[in-house]
Amino acid sequence: MEFNEVLKERKSIRSYEYKEITKDEIKELIEFSNLAPSWKNSQTVRYHIILSDKMKESMQKEGLAPFNAQRTKEASVYIVISFVKDISGFNEDKTPINEMGQGWGYYDAGIATNQLILKACQMGYGSLIMGIRDAEAIRKMLQIPNEEIITSVVAIGKTKVIPERNKRKEIDEIMKIY
């Protein structure tokens, strides 16, 4: 799939038809996501892969909002995205470089997550980024260290229903040229 086609075709998918995803496909997704730029090439984004049925059920019951659990119950995999805090946007003495502080870590995680979902689309999978989640329940379930901030859970799987594209704002409404 051509790059522009991937950009146009990728949508938030809220209905999945179960299809097994291989560990090699997951590694490919992470490999391309990890190519994303990051603060001083710090590469602080971490990927926690939930592939087993038992762990997916636990995620649905404990980690996700009920409406997202229902929408993604047939997804092939959940990927919890986190980043190691106090690195992106911080000096060596752990003081923030500027007013954004941890915001740079979130920024880096967002770029990596975008690359992840674009690669998933290119591979023929749908995805949904879920920011409404119980970070502490997920931390406990997956034993994610306190040094990591959990940003989102991404569901990836075979699309069952392709949604209509939401109307986008006009370019003149969102852009200013100086």
TrEMBL record:
Coiled-coil segments on the chain, per record: none
Nitroreductase domain residues: 7-158
Gene Ontology molecular function: oxidoreductase activity
Keyword entries, A-Z: Oxidoreductase
InterPro entries documented for this protein: Nitroreductase, Nitroreductase-like
Family: Belongs to the nitroreductase family.
Name of the protein described by the UniProt record: Nitroreductase
